[in-house]
Amino acid sequence: MFLGHFAVGLALKKTEPRVPLGVWFAAGQFLDILWPIFLLTGIERVSVVPGITVVTPLNLEILDWSHSLAMVLLWSLIFGTVIYWRVRSRNAFIFTGLAVASHWLLDYATHRPDMPLWPHSERFGLGLWNSMPGTLALEFAMFFGAVYLYAPGMNNTGKAVRINLVLMVLLLVIIYAGSVFGPPPPNDQTMLAIATLTPVPFLIFWANWIDHRVIMVQSITSKSKEN
Asked: Rounded to two decimals, what is the model's pTM?
């Protein structure tokens, strides 16, 4: 899953507005930020096997340290604690942690049986990736539903900010479409890891830029109403 993880960040943003949107994106994608790092260190492994599922050719051979349920609970606790330390908000701790944990549930629904409960345990997965219509329906319904929830906060922002949100949404859809309908990636762990990590800092920075301007407008509007 790809768009669905970004959807979680967009949807949960309102639970604690002081946490920037880019941080919510990072929470939803956190396991897929760890995964390429663990590929580069060699403690996890992936290969490209065209046809292994309808949606993706990735054969996720070892996911124990980034994606096993036991480790996900640990990553959720660590992520939520760091955000709580910065924001001092119980909502920030709870919901950023839930955003990280949601990754396992969404991957469990979409992956073939490659999701472990703990390192080196039996692996599970409902295999939605074997249905292209089902996968696309879930991803797009979640993503555009979350955009719909986030968009009202931009009503009073400038045109440039709204255009940036539209462009970011389009870029995410294009990246997703390329991964689903494009040619298989090279069967090289290092290249796969680098390709996965490369857009992440840019997307986080861009989301934070948009969100910062939304918060500024909301703050000004709130002060005007008080006066």
From this structure: 0.94
